[in-house]
Structure formats: structure tokens, C-alpha cells
Amino acid sequence: MSDPIDSSDSSKRTFVLEVSNKMGIHARPAAMIVRIATRYSGEIWIDKNGEKVNAKSIMGIMMLAAAKGTKLTFDCYGSESIEFENEIKELFASKFQDE
């Protein structure tokens, strides 16, 4: 995976979300995350235990193998990071409409 942009960037926003749906992040939830992330112009990275992937990459997200209970750290860069955070939090709260 590519290295994220300079972490000293002042527009960086970081937050942690826990996977709470029983099936974890499989293909459909990964696609839902990508669909939201690609609407935003800034870079968005997801970290699971030090492994970072681009939130706009469905294969990257699926490679994280995030099961129920996994904590994912999101690093967002850009002026729309608050909007992304709000939208992705709603998606996680809905349990990806799996249940």
C-alpha cells in the first residue's frame, strides 16, 4: 500500500470506529465505505493495527479482514473531513444495514 500523505498536515482528522455488525467488513460493507469515501476529494486512510489502506480501495479494505469488534482508525485529510466523518459514522451505526 502507498504511504499516507504527511501526517503533520494541519487538516488531518482522526477518529476510531468499531465494527459492530456480525459479519464484519465483507464485500458489501467495503463497497459502501468506498462509495462514501470516493465522494470526498481529500485522502482517507484506514488503519487496523498498523496496517494502513486507502479508504477508496475496496480490495484494500477487504484485505484488513475486519471482523466484529475490530477497531478501525480513520485518518482524513482535506476540508470535507468532518462531513466524511459524520457520514461514515452513520454507516457504522447502521451496521451496514446487515442486521
Could you explain the architecture of this structure?
The protein has a 4-stranded antiparallel sheet with strand order 1-4-2-3, covered by helices on one side. It is 30% helix and 23% strand. It has helices at residues 27-37, 58-63, 81-93, and strands spanning 12-18, 44-48, 51-54, 71-77. The chain has a single domain (26-97), classed as Histidine-containing Protein, Chain: A (2-Layer Sandwich), CATH 3.30.1340.10.
Topology:
Layout lengths: L11 E7 L8 H11 L6 E5 L2 E4 L3 H6 L7 E7 L3 H13 L6
Antiparallel strand pairs: 1-4, 2-3, 2-4
Helix pairs in contact: 1-3
Output the CATH topology.
Answer: Histidine-containing Protein, Chain: A
**Any low-confidence stretches, pLDDT <50, length ≥5?**
none
Q: Report the mean per-residue pLDDT as an integer.
A: 91
**Beta-strand content bin:** 15-25%
Q: Kindly name the structural category.
A: alpha+beta
Beta strand count: 4
Q: Cα distance, first to last residue?
A: 32 Å
| Computed Rg | 12 Å
N to C succession of SSEs? EHEEHEH
Corresponding CATH architecture:
2-Layer Sandwich
Strand order of the largest sheet: 1-4-2-3
CATH homologous superfamily identity: HPr-like
How many separate domains? 1
Give a brief outline of the structure.
This protein has 99 residues and is α+β, with helices and mostly antiparallel strands.
